[in-house]
């Protein structure tokens, strides 16, 4: 059974004659007659009653007409979707993230992509940066986000966002009321670093910034992630330096003060396999080049203090 036969059949049914159907599909009448006869032979039913006035559908023909229309419509939709997929307008984009980028940069970037490609299916998974590189190579993910990636020859890494830094302090600290802070202001306090392990990481960037400013702080603890670090700040174990995205985490007894060091920011990097040429990834990369502004996170509130 061919789509051409179904189109001829629908034309005969709707025109009420073989001659009218032939004119509609822009062929002579004999090909239409042959194709309908072949269709009846394949189905082993009579689809039309031939009369001097034209062709009348049999009961079998009426049932088959409904199915034939659905098949033609599904064929049309399949063609449209396949062409849209080839243009990167639909498809599945699997995105992995690690760390605090999920609180600001990643949602902002994906919102822009969704606005440009509304029919795309976006899947989000949490995954360490080393596992992300393995997953990119295996095709398990299309895109990875992290603060830092180890260099790899087959993986492209690009900076997609830069965030200012904040100091997370216990609300009892006398610096908690400041509008901004410089690194030397933190001298004498215990520093909580995060994340622990899996270097290089944001922790290394903090240590590098402190060293460049000739500020020596006692390392009070190394927390597994930003949430653990803020919990330690909450119970008075020390302070921590964090990207702006972390200020969206509300922890009792913790307040955030912006670090007034204009040359110190925290990047978010995007990684993808250089050999990946899928249309959906190409569409995502095009959205990254769109420089239209995206609404940023609100300025962090002073948490744990009376307003």
Give a quick rundown of the structure.
The chain has helices spanning 3-15, 18-25, 29-43, 59-86, 105-116, 129-138, 202-212, 226-234, 279-288; strands spanning 48-51, 54-57, 90-97, 119-126, 143-146, 155-170, 180-181, 190-193, 218-222, 240-243, 254-259, 265-273. The protein is of the alpha/beta class.
What does it look like?
The protein is an alpha/beta fold and 307 residues long. The chain has three domains: 3-86, Arc Repressor Mutant, subunit A (Orthogonal Bundle), CATH 1.10.10; 90-159 and 267-288, Periplasmic binding protein-like II (D-Maltodextrin-Binding Protein, domain 2, 3-Layer(aba) Sandwich), CATH 3.40.190; 163-266, Periplasmic binding protein-like II (D-Maltodextrin-Binding Protein, domain 2, 3-Layer(aba) Sandwich), CATH 3.40.190. Helices cover 38% and strands 24% of the residues. It contains nine helices and twelve strands. The strands form three sheets. Strands 3, 4, 5, 6, 7, 10, 11 and 12 form an eight-stranded mixed sheet that branches. Helix 1 packs across helix 3 (29-43), helix 1 packs across helix 4 (59-86) and helix 5 crosses helix 9 (279-288). The radius of gyration is 32 Å and the shape is rod-shaped. 32% of the residues are buried. Residues 293-307 have low confidence and may be disordered.
């Amino acid at each position: 059974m061919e789509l051409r036969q179904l189109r001829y059949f629908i034309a005969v049914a709707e025109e009420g004659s073989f001659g009218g159907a032939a004119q509609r599909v822009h062929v002579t009448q004999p090909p239409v007659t042959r194709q309908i006869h072949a269709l009846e032979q394949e189905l082993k039913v009579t689809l039309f009653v031939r009369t001097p006035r034209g062709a009348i559908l049999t009961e079998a023909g009426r049932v088959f007409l409904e199915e034939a229309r659905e098949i033609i419509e599904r064929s049309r939709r399949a063609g449209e979707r396949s062409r849209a997929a080839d243009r990167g307008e639909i498809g599945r984009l699997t995105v992995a993230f690690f760390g605090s980028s999920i609180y600001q940069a990643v949602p902002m970037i994906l919102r822009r992509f969704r606005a440009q490609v509304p029919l795309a299916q976006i899947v989000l998974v949490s995954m360490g940066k080393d596992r992300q590189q393995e997953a990119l190579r295996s095709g398990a993910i299309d895109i990875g986000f992290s603060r830092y990636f180890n260099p790899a020859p087959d993986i492209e890494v690009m900076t997609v966002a830069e965030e200012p830094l904040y100091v997370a302090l216990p609300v009892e600290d006398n610096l908690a009321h400041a509008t901004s802070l410089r690194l030397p202001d933190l001298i004498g306090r215990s520093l909580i670093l995060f994340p622990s392990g899996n270097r290089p990481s944001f922790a290394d960037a903090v240590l590098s910034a402190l060293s460049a400013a000739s500020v020596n702080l006692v390392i009070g603890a190394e927390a597994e992630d930003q949430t653990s670090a803020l919990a330690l700040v909450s119970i008075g174990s020390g302070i921590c330096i964090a990207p702006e995205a972390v200020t969206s985490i509300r922890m009792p007894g913790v307040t955030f003060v912006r670090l007034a060091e204009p040359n110190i920011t925290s990047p978010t990097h995007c990684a993808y396999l250089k050999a990946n040429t899928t249309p959906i990834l190409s569409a995502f990369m095009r959205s990254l080049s769109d420089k239209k502004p995206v609404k940023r996170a609100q300025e962090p509130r002073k948490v744990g203090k009376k307003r």
